[in-house]
Structures are given as structure tokens and as C-alpha cells.
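tool_call predict_complex ligand=2-(butylsulfanyl)adenosine
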Amino acid sequence: MANHEEIKAKINSLKTEINRHNYRYYVMDSPEVSDAEYDALMRELKGLEERYPQLVTADSPSQRIGAAPAEAFGVVEHPYPLLSLGNVFSKDELIAWYTRISKLLEVTQFGFVGEHKIDGLAVALTYVNRRLTTGATRGDGSHGEDITRNLRTIRSIPLSLPREAPPRLEVRGEVFLPKTGFHRLNQERAAEGQPLFANPRNAAAGSVRQLDSSITARRPLDIYIYMMGYAEGRATPATHWETMEYLQSLGFKVNPNNRRLADIEQVEGYYQTWKERQAELPYEADGIVVKVDQFDLQQRLGDVGREPRWAIAYKFPATQGTTLLRDIGINVGRTGTLNPVAILEPVTVGGVTIRQAALHNEDDIRRKDIRIGDNVIVQRAGGVIPEIIGPIESKRTGKEKEFSLKEKSREIYRAKRGLTKETKTPNNTICPECGTEAIKPEGEVMYYCSNAACPAQAQQRIEHFASRGAMDIRGIGESQSAMLLREGLVKDASDLYYLKDKKEQLIKLERMAEKNATNMLEAIEKSKERPLARLIFALGIRHAGEEMAEVLSREFHSIDKLADASREELLSIPTIGPKIADSVIAFFQEEENRRIIERMGEVGVRLGVRSAEVRAISNTTGDRSGQVWDLAEALAAVSRFTAAVFVR
Ligand code: IVH
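tool_result ok
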């Protein structure tokens, strides 16, 4: 084991590092490391301090919660300190917490309340004589900043309470920006050339800690009250759950996802449910908070340091990490877009190894000032493609290189062809796959490869066509679509449906064999029945994502009708703007696209909605109420390509 001096030095360096991160996070609203990395540092420090209690000092970051409040706001003293929460990260650790507290209580049967741990900022609201008198941040737990004027601008905070409310009341809750508000805010900031917020927590904190409260007022902030600080002059309930119901009855906003849970197994169930459904929530949550329900038990358990024993945060797996941006590559998308992609030093984030991340476009890379060779913060959000949040500027060495799409596109192309620098390629941005000059339509941010026969596009189109959200053809992914193309078995997606006539050749392909071929052909057959919206999405019409495909399916009921739609007709649909309208028109003007659809129709791919679906649609969209659709009508609305296929 290391000697005493070494351990002391290690503790000191951890403290310095954590203190610096605290300052960046709490004072500057501009963190340098992910929460997961911060948590890891703190755990390491706490672990060492637990083993060597003689080395714990009063100024250790483990002994306090936040950093000192910024000076520009008045200071508010909290009559009862605002506590922090201990963390657990697994079922074992949850059970260990439960075992510990049941031993202390000498009971095993007691109830809990499960809540979401919203990633925002803690505030305390004080009501004197039923009027909001003070709103404060947590600050260091005992002293916070007076942000009453700003909090008054949040619509979900009551400014006065009903007559039955206690004459003196303090409630605590989390102020946050919903995901949509966060994205909108960042979009606006991007448009104005302002730096973007790294996450909703920083956006909420930055919004609430504005000296000019009219700025706060323009931000779509919200609050959920999650506990009562204290009440004087009126009896209040004996459990946390009932207190929340009571506060709700006084006009406070309480999260409807809170649940009363009878035992620790139900707590685990609640956690599992929301770990899976995290992405559906309108706000960012990084875990659940588990609270012992009965106040008498809470009181008996008390606090350790700044953390109550009666509550714990059970964190979801981390979604952020930091790593080295080794290079920026360019993927050619299915519609020909040149997509910059981050090539990362592999990093494990919440159990998933990330090697690549989306970088959107050149403007965005510039705006975030991301350079090749930077240390970057990567984020995995609800199962979608990982994203780069931004660079860690303090880790720069000066050797980082700025990215240029033009240079890179040419560099990749040359490397692929084994060409030397001197070889002539057009002096513009080019498609790194086929070398054709890339174009950037006016008003758009993306460059496109203008070669309709670009092999990279064909492969991506087929891969997309077969993907999960599209026609969902199991067994056709990146490598299979590339192989089918290379071997000349398919040229476009419609050829997939004619593969059954080429089974002999299919079997002969590398790693194929009879069984795989049969499975692939069966999966292709099955995909003929996919709903119209899926097909529209699968076709890869530029700008028509999954949601837009649903809209188009609902409005037009068949590929045929959609193909014949005029620009005006398209624009008359509320969610359709000129960008989509034009790209739908352009798609169907392309002879090749019509031919592909026709060939699909000929072998029985469904090109319209079923009559039952039509009825369901007309029932759910109010605008068609009263209109009765039957099979004949639906058929008429369907395809001239293949109405016959539709009736089975
Ligand atoms: S209870 C004594 N409930 O998490 C318990 N906190 O690390 C103190 N938070 O400062 C807090 N959602 O900012 C509680 N449902 C919830 C919460 C929640 C988010 C935040 C809060 C607090 C921090 C504790």
C-alpha cells in the first residue's frame, strides 16, 4: 500500500481538481467534464477519505455542496440547509442503502416515494402570509442567491397561495428547461452566433441567474416542487406522499410521474421502467430519487454531513463522457449529403463503446469550435446517434487542426484512390467516394454529391430502405447491401424484391449459404406488408423523416396520390413547408424513382393504406369527421400502380 504522504498528495490533487470543476459548474455554468467523470472523481475522494478519516478537512469539496454564490445577487440564508443527495448506481448499491437504513430503524417494512431526478437547478420558495416573498438558489446549502425577481417570471410558480395555506411555508423544487425549450433556445443562440448551452441544466441555471429578469421571462422555464422545507401555523401531513398531494392542492406543480412504492422491489421496478423510457420524458432526468415516505422515519434516520440518510439518488447509466477527437471523416448519406463524422478514441459511456459521433455540418463544427485533436465531450441521448457537445478548450496543446470540408473531401478521395497530392481533382468540395463535385443548394447548410449514380449513395439508400424504422428487412445491413451491389445482384431497392429469382447466385455469396439466403428472402417477402408511412420513409425522400412520412401517409393514403400532389396541395398541410414540398415534387419528378416504385408495386409491395387504417385515421383526425370511408373509396384513393395487390 502507498504511504501516508502519497495518499495525502492524491487527496489534495483530487480536491484541487474537484474544486476547479465545482467553480466551472456552479459559478460559470460552463463545465469542463461530464457529470460521470465528476462523479468518479468525487467517489474516489470520498473513498479515500472514508479509509483515512484523519485526512478529512473542513474545506474538502466532499464536505459541502456547491460553490459560493455569485456576488451580484443578494444573499439569502436558508433557515434549514438545502441538502444534497448520495448516489447509487446499481441494484446492489440500492439494496445496501436499504439494508443500512432498515438496520438503523430496526424495521424492514416501510414505504417509499419514487421521483424523477430532473436535471435542473434547486430552488427554495418562501411564502409569508401566503405571498411569495423569497426565491433562492441552493448556493452552498446554507446560503443561496436571492433570485426572487427571476423566479416570479416562471408561470408555474404561484405568487400567492389560497387562504388555507400555512402562514409561513417554504417549499423546494427543481427549475428546469424542457427538452424542446432547450433545443429552441440553442437554435436561437446558434442563429445569433452566441455560444450554445451544453445541457438543459446549464441552460436553466444560466436563465435563472440573469441579472436582467426580462431575459429570464423569455425562457420557457418550468418547475416541479419535490419537498416541503418547513411549515408554520398549520398542521401538515405525516408522509412525504401526502405532503406532495397537499402542496399540489395549494397550487404547486408536482411531477405526475411520482409514485408511492410499497417496498424496495417496487423501487427497482420504477427505476427500470424509467431507465428504459428516459427518452420519452419532456425533460432531462439523470436518475430517480428514492425517499422514505414517513416523516417520523425520516427524522429518526437524520443526516450524515450534507446528505439525508432517508433519501438517495439512483442514477441512470451515464450518457456523457470525454475523449480524443482523432479525426473528422465524411460519410456520404443516402440523399448524397456529405456528413462530417467524428472519429473518436473509443470511450465507454454508460456501458456502450462510442467510436464515432455525428457532427451535423461544417457550420456547426465551426460554431462549436471543434478541432481535430481536441478533447471533446460526447453525449449519448436516448439511444440515438452520439453527439459531440463541444471541445474542452483548457486541454488544447496548440497542435489541433481546424476542419475544412473542402480539404478533407479531397484528402479522403485521394487516399482512397492512392493518388498523390499533385493529382488533378477539381479545386472544390468533392464527393469523397466518387470524386464528383459537390454542390450546396442556396439556403441549405449541407453539401450534396451531385452524382445520382454515386455508389456510396446507392449503398446507403438500400441500407436505409431495409433499416428498422423503414421496411425493417432483417439481415440486410451495411455489409450485405454493399455486397449485393458489388456483386451486381441489385442496383436499387426495388431489386431486393426480385432477388428470389436469383437465389442460386445469392447462395454463392461470401458467408451466405442456403439458410441465410432463405431467411433473407423471407424477410424481404414479409416487408411487402409494411404500412405506407414506412414505405414513404424508406424511399428516402430528402427532408422526409419518420414523422413527416406519417403525415404524408395520413394525408394522401397512397403513393399514387402523393406522387400526383401539387405544390399547393402539399403546402396546404400545416406541418409541410416549402422545403419538404419541393423535395417531394422533385423526388417524384425523377423518372428513376417512379420506375422503382412501379417495380415494387408489380410484385406486391403495399403502396396504400388499408381501409381499416383509413377509417382509423379519419377517426383520429378531427378534420374528416362525419366522412365515411369504405373499401371501395379507399381503393379508389389507392394506387394506379397496383390497386389489385391491395385487396387480399
Ligand atoms: S430531494 C434532501 N428530489 O438533486 C433531498 N432532489 O443532489 C434533497 N433534484 O439539490 C433533494 N430532482 O437539485 C430531490 N425529485 C427530486 C429531485 C431533486 C432533482 C436535485 C436537486 C437537489 C439534487 C440533489
